[in-house]
Substrate-binding domain-containing protein
Amino acid sequence: MTRIFRMLPLFVALFLFSAVASVSTSWAAEQKNLILATTTSTQDSGLLDVLIPIFEKQTGYFVKTISVGSGQAMKMGEKGEADVLLVHSPDAEKKFMADGFGVNRKLVMHNDFIVLGPANDTAKIRGTKTAADALKAIAKANALWLSRGDNSGTHAKEKGLFKAAGINPEGQKWFQQTGLGMGETLNVAAEKKGYLLADRGTYLALNKKAHLGLEIMVQGEPKLLNIYHVIEVNPAKWPKVNNAGAKAFADFMVSKKTQEIISTFGKKEFGSPLFFPDAGKKPESLGL
């Protein structure tokens, strides 16, 4: 019994060492997990399927990608539920930054939005010069329009285009909201033979996998530019976010190697890239 009492301090020390080692290991594992909240277009286009494995191999981080609309991604950032954001809703992003939820917003890339419609083009908008004129024609013809209705960057752009056209589509029989991401909304529009606004990258990627029967009706207008930024969630507001990982991801997205990958992504399959690299450019050059 005396011997057991003599060894008790040793047992306690071993127990404490084991507990501390376990906590340290758990903390280290947590610090290697990175939560990325991003728009559905970066996922649906296949770009992140190429970039994330490279980032994980280079840095040792494990990325959990949550693909939602840009609005929902920023809501996650506001609650400290994500470490880093990759989004494409510039006005909402500026408010996110002004409210102190994000730091180090960096320009990453752009592609463009396009207005799509069924091959028979019941509203007769094919080749229309502006989205505003196309929307007016769609409204006049009572032709079905499919909206994501999910507070995403695409939805924000769509609302701005309707406003510029002087149209309030809410409550109109020809206007339907899916509440879904870009890929799923494209599938709904294909099934119902409706019109919609989409980003070119997702449309081209999905149309190649399964012909959607939707064709490009309006494109090339400066207002249809679709611009992406990476934003680190502010650690001053949410101390538990993985700021080191967020910074590593942001730096990776604007690095020369990643920008080169972006510049060629999709070129072989579609004849032109799905995104265009913008790191280091002045925002004014893109009309921001």
About this structure: Strands lie at 33-38, 62-67, 84-87, 102-118, 145-147, 175-177, 196-199, 214-218, 225-233, 276-277. The first strand starts at residue 33 and ends at 38. Residues 218 and 259 are 28 Å apart (CA to CA).
